[in-house]
Amino acid sequence: MTTPAPGSGPDTPDPDPDDTPFAPGPDDIPVAPGPRPDPEGASAPGDVPVLTDAVPAASVRRFWAVRRIPAAVLAALVLGGAGLLLYDVAAVRADRQAMAWRRELADGLATRPLDDTWVVVGAAVAVVLGLWLLILAATPGLRAVLPMRREHTDVRAGLDRDAAAFALRDRAMEVSGVQSVRVRVGRAKVAVKAVSHFRALDEVRTDVESVLAAGIEELALAHPPALTVRVARPPRKG
Q1: Under a CB-based contact definition with an 8 Å cutoff, are residues 168 and 84 in contact?
Q2: Which of 32, 34, 80, 157 is most exposed, with minimal Cβ within 10 Å?
Q3: What are 48-105's pLDDT values in tens digits?
């Protein structure tokens, strides 16, 4: 009598071919164990994040003017005055007479009273020049350039006010009923004066305001200016 082997018999299911142990062959490449990708699309702990070009917008400031002409004029005046004074001092040290302008200036400062007209005028001119230099040093200048929004921290862009005015004027001329448009673009305000030769003025004004509001948004300015629109009829001839 033969005894059946353990696990065999009429009630024992057939072995699953997927449960058969796998024996690597000579051509198989071993794979190191690691985290499996998430089926839902989430990144695994060992994944490297993908960097994009978009960065948060940085604070936008006005462009600072170089001011080469005022700096060159001031440097030339200071250099010329200092050189002339140094030459006169050296001449006096060499037993020569001082220049006439220096003697007259010294005598005038010693003898003229403080309420003299020329003293007051000279003091006023010096104060005005000093205030002008302080204003130039403390303000950015370049009022004709409007700063644009910064999409990247290492890129700065500006738009000339005349170019912005031309772009908005072209947009306004596309409105039905507009005959001519004058646009003035400032740092805080856009003033538009349109002339309409047909259609109701209120309708034309509404269309011009909507078109120019979209145009100002498309300019991508950092500080969008306020919009003021005036629409009138053309002057009558004769």
Answers
A1: no
A2: 32
A3: 443 334 444 456 777 777 777 878 888 899 999 999 989 988 988 888 888 888 888 8
- Phi, psi torsion values for 204, nearest 5 degrees: -65, -40
Structure tokens at 232: 């009138």
Q: At what angle do helices 161-173 and 201-218 cross, to 10 degrees?
A: 140
Please report where in the chains the tokens 């910064």 appear, as a residue. Answer: 150
Helices (H), 41-178: 68-93, 100-111, 117-138, 161-173
Express each pLDDT in 144-190 by its tens digit: 888 888 877 777 888 899 999 999 999 999 999 999 999 999 888 99
If phi over 0 gives left and psi between -120 and 50 gives alpha, with beta otherwise, what is residue 216? Answer: alpha
pTM of the model: 0.55
CA-based nearest residue to 162, from 179, 178, 148, 183: 183
Q: How far apart are CA 150 and CA 155, in angstroms?
A: 7
CB 222 within 8 A of CB 148: yes
Pairing assessment for the beta strands 226-232 and 189-196 based on DSSP bridges: parallel
